[in-house]
């Protein structure tokens, strides 16, 4: 083997996965088609669950502390207050994707991940005990052999195609045009619905304005690439009456309301994560956050398998858990797309939903869904309300150090003397908790004392045999 895991794609998801694998002791090579990091900042929003994960891994410190945030979000363009969530990081946190990639790339490299740029994957072959990848590199064709390959290479994933994954769903019917433009002065707009369309504008501290526009009734175009700035200028003027043609475009693209999800996230020794596994309208930044959380769910499991600590079936839980989460997220985004991009015909629905969102339980439920805080995995037998949910950061106490290293954690009200239940599990005193809980490296509860499964069985299921 040339390495244990090949990751295709050095965007945020691929780099997050590389760091997670290294924390678990696995070798990882990242192959990226682009010769240098992109300067395009596509996604700029981190949600509460991602911020909690970054804090658990010590990544917020590298950002210089929490970035600016906005306690107001939206659901399909309808204002939504995030301040009622139980988390240290409510709201939407503004980090340009270029900065996120820089952060994760530096972290993964320090941990020993091998990131190789200028390599475009052309072929992929599975065998019983390995996968071979062929790529065109700066010095010609290279072939690498690994135990597993993970496609983190975006919506047009080469790995998904070469791996034979089905990708059912719907193509885009409507689209938003988007551009970062320097040298223009337009009012900031937050989902402003005008007679002929939807307009959004936000001026950044560096003076560049991001504009997004949708013209009601205008179908998504069949595109071979990004739109011209002239197209954005014309649609913006038709919707708002303003001329932005004198500005300098920094970046232009279009995104639609396509909704697709790979029917499986694993086929033998090939796996998918991030946009390679699901395509959706990037409403409120959910796509990036969904992908980063895919990587955190997969990383420790894949590391445990390739290093021989756990058996292969542990990897099947990645599909079981994250496919269900992805399906739910796609469902809420499709609902948002209908009320966001619909014309006058959706106004009655928007009015009713706007009234319902004023109720705290409705508001907090939607905010929790968008923020990734409502995820619950089927981690074990029993129906205890803690099983499968994340441990709030304020209950981790000293256990936060274990999660920083992507280790397991046994939170115990009266920690016993002697060694813990596993060499990959640290034991610390629980804060404000009367029962012991076993926490996985991704921060989710795998076992609660008094439930149907014993601690030893739960430890072996999630961490393998102790060494």
From TrEMBL:
The keyword Oxidoreductase applies. SUPFAM superfamilies: FAD/NAD(P)-binding domain (SSF51905). One of its GO terms (molecular function) is monooxygenase activity. It comes from the Bacteria. Residues 2-330 form the FAD-binding domain. Its cofactor is FAD. It holds the Pfam family Rng_hyd_C. InterPro entries: FAD-bd, FAD/NAD-bd_sf, RIFMO-like. Keywords: FAD, Flavoprotein, Monooxygenase, Oxidoreductase. This is FAD-dependent monooxygenase.
